Amino acid sequence: MRIARDLASAVGNTPLIRLRKASELTGCEILGKAEFMNPGQSVKDRAALFIIQDAVKRGLLKPGGTIVEGTAGNTGIGLALVGASMGFKTVIVIPETQSQEKKDMIRLAGAELVQVPAAPYKNPNNYVRYSGRLAEEMARTSDKGVIWANQFDNTANRQAHIETTGPEIWEQTGGKVDGFICAAGSGGTVAGVGMALQPKGVKVGLADPMGAALHSFYTTGEFKSEGDSITEGIGQGRITANLEGFTPDFSYQISDHEALPIVFDLLSEEGLVMGGSTGINVAGAIRMAKEMGPGHTIVTILCDYGNRYQSKLFNPEFLTAKGLPVPSWLDRAPASIP
Ligand code: PMP
């Protein structure tokens, strides 16, 4: 029998999908780890599961306990769904500027949503700092346990990728994998898979969006950022605890102009409806394949499903206002019925 005990047990073991166009373009095998096939439709379900399991193991959460996190999206959805499946409540603190689709999805996933005005990290009312304080306050009056998930600096996050994503990639390719590359939000995915696969001789790359400072740090030793990106969930300006002890072998800075046509082609030519970070990842895989040369196998992450970006990534007005490319099929009016 192959029955998942509950939803939490259905996280992970995602397929590797060959990306036809990227492979043909480079003469390499470019493979996408289909993380959008997780129950919460993103790679963050793995981190959510490991963060919760770690808190339970350490006695910090008991049945009916509460998980608090400041997040703009996928981590909140993952924590809410996996948390509900394991018997926990979730409180998600979100900047009120985030898209309605994400707020709706987090509420639908069963979390209590606390909206705060958008503020930079140095402001104590920044959503991440607010969520840490809220967790502390709630913990004072709870006997079932309240944890702050703290995805950026809680290394249970990258442990998920050390123990599951990395080994899955190794097994699925029969060890025939030369490279792995992805972008960093918390850095859990790139560092965790890196730590699992670099000791086996796999080269690991970072694909950094504009506006992030990691590419500059890994190539010059200085945190500098320039430009901007509409991609959500990625783009880091510091070495989080999850990134500590990890160094990429390759690093590329990828613009939205390079990444978005890939997102649109994946949708119209390969049936893959992806979010923007997947475009950054696949663009990075193509750059790394060109640098390594034909004949290599390179794996990247298909991070999340595109429907949660309908009003931005797949909205011609939004793209035009940002000066970004609009694919012809997106611009077409719907066919009218005579
Ligand atoms: N893509 C998307 C859409 C995300 O939400 C995230 C996580 N915020 C990432 C990529 C990056 O994952 P990680 O936090 O493991 O670096």
Would you kindly provide a brief summary of this structure?
Its cofactor is pyridoxal 5'-phosphate. GO terms for molecular function: transferase activity, transferring alkyl or aryl (other than methyl) groups. With 338 residues, the chain is α/β, with parallel strands linked by helices.
Question: How would you explain this protein's 3D organization?
Answer:
This protein is α/β, with parallel strands linked by helices and 338 residues long. 39% of the residues lie in helices and 15% in strands. It folds into 2 domains: 7-37 and 165-322, Rossmann fold (3-Layer(aba) Sandwich), CATH 3.40.50; 43-148, Rossmann fold (3-Layer(aba) Sandwich). A 6-stranded mixed sheet has the order 1-2-10-7-8-9, with helices on both faces. Strands 5-4-3-6 form a 4-stranded parallel sheet, with helices on both faces. Strand 3 (66-70), helix 3 and strand 4 (89-95) form a beta-alpha-beta unit. Helix 2 crosses helix 6, helix 6 (156-172) crosses helix 7 and helix 9 packs across helix 10 (276-292). The longest helix is centred in the middle third of the chain and has 17 residues, at 156-172. The radius of gyration is 20 Å and the shape is globular. It binds 4'-deoxy-4'-aminopyridoxal-5'-phosphate.
